[in-house]
UniProtKB/TrEMBL annotation, chain A:
This protein's UniProt keywords: Cell membrane, Membrane, Transmembrane, Transmembrane helix, Transport
UniProt record similarity statement: Belongs to the binding-protein-dependent transport system permease family.
Protein name per the record: Sugar ABC transporter permease
Subcellular localization(s) per the UniProt record: Cell membrane
Pfam families associated with the record: BPD_transp_1
UniProtKB/TrEMBL annotation, chain B:
Amino acid composition bias (Basic and acidic residues), ranges on this chain: 11-23
Organism: Micromonospora solifontis
UniProt entry keywords in alphabetical sequence: Cell membrane, Membrane, Transmembrane, Transmembrane helix, Transport
Protein name: Carbohydrate ABC transporter permease
PROSITE patterns linked to this entry: ABC_TM1 (PS50928)
């Protein structure tokens, strides 16, 4: 029956493999090799320096500062985003408790869901540029509102104490809607009678969320955590466009450090690749950690 | 507990359960609606503000951020469209994404089909090699990629961007579509082969149409990620600004706006870039939401 399958396998598999090998696999492999050289700029000359780049990196205060900011994002963004996502998804899917007959969504669920999802279809560049204007100290939306209430108008992105948190807030803002929809889809798969039973037992909303919904959604929450953790280790576009890491490196992230090292004024390709290797290990360890710690028994509905 | 008492208890519960919601509902619904409305406002307000500000004069923007535009100044839009070349960048993005999306779907579907339906030596190894690319941060590849593209003579060209976008989308596309092709019934394919249908014909005439829901999901996902791509063009499309894609044009507009104080031009540019995407989203929101979330869940 499988007669003559090899022509198809070869025609179908070779072009994607070549494309992938040339533009994805080979750059990744070369990056490891480049990270052990002192390659500078656009000259062809590069000496192997072994682990020297990684030793420099270990003592590089700027890189550590950037990693610290990514670590804060990693601690805050997934928790807050998943928390808000679960909260709104619960409200939308079973906020209305219409008597005994059911646990249904609130009125206007479809509209809320549509609006919440908006940021997901916009490019991050647009989100960054828009929020930069929202935070604008003079003519921004935020300070306009604050002034209307007679409150002081901070400089937000211009202040090293607040700049990083402003960017972080935008990161949460742009992600919540996606997880509302994601969790909502997963909640729709939970049999309604479970909730009706819980409702009859007189459980509060909070107990229902904590004891029923979250355990039943655990797989989805875990996936969300991994994706948000990876996003928190990036943050490059938002930071570059909103603050460019400033003021005074207060909102710097590791991706921007790498980009500036490679394509900024100095083009230290060797050192930048070493930062890239560190990013890879951070990303992989966070993903593995999330998978390990979050493992629970899968629940199947019959 | 025997059956009789169980129903007895249930019946005793019922009136109470019936009573509770009306008391509960007023407060709780106000509470939940309040939060829901708050977040909806928080999401929609910046976008609405951007839209309204695109009609304002710079004076209006500076003096009253919350005010409404005094007139519908479409000249802001035309200034962004022609002087900031947003129109051209829009077209460029369209050309690049049309190419990259076609290539991704074609190569992704064919590779996934082979992984899902054919046995050959080393299949597992090749598959994991392919799909493993999903886990790697693109930053790691940037420096060597820059030289790979330059040495191939594709630096600053749309062809280069198309090939690179497609290459970096393949791992996820193949991963998703392999899982999808595996769910399709084998009996149809076997019947077609027995009837003398060739392997190629089988794929294009039978399997591809059957896989349409999966193809649409992954195409939506890829379309948005290609359309919104920023880091790759920033590195691979430096120089010649007539070939830039939309994201680059917008950042350049933001920079020049900073020097000239042309706030209304920036808002008009952002609005022009946002509206079509938002309109398509509103029209196909169901498919787009399921397409994107299904993409993350597999």
């Amino acid at each position: 029956m499988r007669h003559g399958k090899y022509p198809l396998i070869i025609t179908f598999l070779v072009p994607p493999l070549v494309l992938y090998g040339v533009f994805v696999l080979s750059p990744y492999l070369q990056a490891f090799q480049i990270s052990t050289t002192n390659w500078l700029g656009y000259s062809a000359h590069a000496d192997s320096v072994g682990m020297a780049n990684f030793r420099t990196l270990w003592h590089d205060g700027q890189v550590w500062n950037a990693i610290k900011n990514n670590a804060i994002m990693l601690a805050v963004v997934p928790v807050v985003t998943i928390g808000l996502g679960l909260f709104f998804a619960t409200m939308l899917n079973m906020g209305g408790r219409k008597g005994r007959a059911g646990v249904t969504g609130v009125r206007g669920t479809a509209v809320y869901r549509m609006v919440y999802f908006f940021p997901q279809v916009l490019s991050v560049v647009i989100i960054a540029l828009l929020w930069k204007e929202v935070y604008h100290p003079n003519n921004g939306l935020l300070n306009g509102a604050l002034r209307a209430f007679g409150l002081p108008a901070p400089t937000w992105l211009g202040d090293p104490r607040t700049a990083f948190w402003c960017v972080l807030a935008v990161m949460v803002w742009s992600n919540v809607g996606f997880y509302v929809v994601l969790f909502g889809a997963a909640m729709a798969a939970i049999p309604r009678d479970i909730y009706e039973a819980v409702l009859l037992d007189g459980a509060s909303r909070w107990t229902t969320l904590r004891r029923i919904t979250v355990p039943l959604l655990w797989d989805t929450v875990q996936v969300a955590w991994i994706y948000l953790a990876i996003a928190a280790l990036d943050g490059f576009i938002l930071v570059q466009q909103m603050t460019n890491g400033g003021p005074n490196f207060s909102s710097d992230v590791i991706g921007l450090r790498m980009y500036e090292t490679a394509f900024g004024s100095e083009s230290k390709f060797g050192y930048a690749s070493a930062i890239g290797v560190v990013m890879l290990f951070l990303t992989l360890s966070v993903a593995v950690l999330a998978l390990r710690t979050g493992r629970r028994d899968r629940i199947e509905y019959s | 507990m025997d059956r009789a008492t169980a129903t007895g208890a249930e019946q005793a519960e019922r009136p109470r359960a019936d009573e509770r919601p009306p008391r509960d509902r007023g407060v709780a619904n106000l509470f939940s609606h309040g939060f829901l409305l708050f977040w909806a406002a928080l999401t929609a307000l910046p976008l609405l503000w951007m839209f309204l500000s695109s009609f304002k004069s710079d004076g209006e923007i500076l003096s009253d951020p919350w005010g409404l535009p005094g007139a519908l100044r479409f000249e802001n839009w035309s200034r962004a469209w022609t002087e900031a070349h947003i129109g051209r960048y829009f077209l460029n993005s369209g050309i690049v994404v049309a190419g990259s999306l076609t290539l991704t779907m074609l190569l992704g579907a064919t590779a996934a089909y082979v992984f899902a339906r054919y046995e050959f030596r080393g299949r597992q190894v090749v598959y994991y090699l392919f799909v493993g690319g999903m886990m790697f941060p693109v930053f790691l590849a940037l420096v060597p990629l820059f030289f790979v593209v330059r040495n191939a003579g594709l630096f600053g060209s749309w062809t280069g961007l198309i090939l690179v976008y497609a290459a970096y989308s393949l791992p996820f596309t193949v991963f998703f579509l392999t899982a999808f092709f595996r769910t399709l019934p084998t009996s149809v394919a076997e019947a077609a082969l027995i009837d003398g249908c060739g392997h190629f014909r089988l794929f294009f005439r039978v399997m591809l149409p059957m896989a349409r829901p999966g193809l649409i999901s992954v195409a939506i996902f890829n379309f948005l990620s290609h359309w919104n791509q920023f880091i790759l063009p920033q590195v691979l499309m430096q120089g010649d600004d007539s070939k830039w894609v939309l994201a680059q044009g917008l950042t350049a507009l933001a920079v020049s706006q900073g020097y000239q104080g042309d706030f209304s031009g920036l808002f008009a540019g952002l609005t022009i870039a946002t509206l079509p995407v938002l309109a398509v989203y509103v029209a196909f929101q169901r498919q787009i939401q399921t397409g994107l979330t299904a993409g993350q869940l597999k």
